[in-house]
């Protein structure tokens, strides 16, 4: 891997910031489960009449979609951080070539190079 330690450090900090942001958002709409990195969407009790029930379901559905997207992001971030620890960060999972630094700077959790 051609990344120097300064660049790795910079990208790691970005990933950690991103991780905090995603976790914060997840905690707003979901509760962490015993599984590491897994969350379950909150189902809030707004009220008991029909309109309230409809908004509850609507809110739950929106949150569920958001939660799924955030969990996916979090998983990618955790994987990227693990790769930094095992010195396999920055290599494309598809073709095995180095991912460009520009791409990593724009998207530090990238798993594949721009061609893949
Ligand atoms: Zn590739």
Question: Can you tell me about this structure?
Answer:
There is one protein chain. This protein is mainly alpha-helical and 116 residues long. The protein has three helices and two strands; from the N terminus they run H-E-E-H-H. Strands 1-2 form a two-stranded antiparallel sheet. Helix 1 packs antiparallel against helix 2 (50-85). The radius of gyration is 18 Å and the shape is elongated. The mean pLDDT is 90. Bound molecules: zinc ion. Residues 92, 94-95, 97, 112-113, 115-116 line the site of zinc ion.
DSSP strand content: 5-15%
The value of Rg in angstroms is 18 Å
**How many strands, what sense, and barrel or not for the largest sheet?**
2 strands, antiparallel
Helicity level: 55-70%
Bound molecules: zinc ion
Q: Given the C-alpha coordinates, what overall shape results?
A: elongated
* Distance from first to last alpha carbon: 18 Å
Mean pLDDT: 90
């Amino acid at each position: 891997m051609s990344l120097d330690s300064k660049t790795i450090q910079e990208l790691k900090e970005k990933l950690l910031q991103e991780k905090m942001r995603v976790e914060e958002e997840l905690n707003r709409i979901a509760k962490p489960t015993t599984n590491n990195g897994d969350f379950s969407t909150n189902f809030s009790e707004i009220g008991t009449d029909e309109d309230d029930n409809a908004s509850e379901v609507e809110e739950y559905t929106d949150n569920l979609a958001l939660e799924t997207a955030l969990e996916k992001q979090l998983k990618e971030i955790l994987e990227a951080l693990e790769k930094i620890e095992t010195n396999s960060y920055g290599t494309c999972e598809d073709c095995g070539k180095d991912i460009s630094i520009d791409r990593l700077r724009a998207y530090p959790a990238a798993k594949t190079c721009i061609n893949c």
